[in-house]
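Aim 2 progress update. The chain analyzed this quarter is reproduced below.
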Amino acid sequence: METRSAVIGHIQRGGPPTLFDRMLATRAGYKAADIVAAGEFGKMVALRGNEMKAVSLEEATSKIKTVTPEWLALADTFFK
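Predicted structure tokens:
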């Protein structure tokens, strides 16, 4: 039986990370460490506006979040 492995890199996932991507990941990791150090379990990090916030998992999963028609139209512009 022949098998192959594939390591999917940045290009296949949409390109290399930008400075914004790297800063966002750093800020999220920093905030996550703060949450754990404070003993605030059952929470996740969320970007709200320009701030990293601790959000309860219950709040984060309590309702279905949908994409607005405007965002779908914008995506359609790029992926037609």
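The chain has one domain: 10-78. The chain has a mean pLDDT of 90. These observations will guide the mutagenesis experiments scheduled for the next reporting period.
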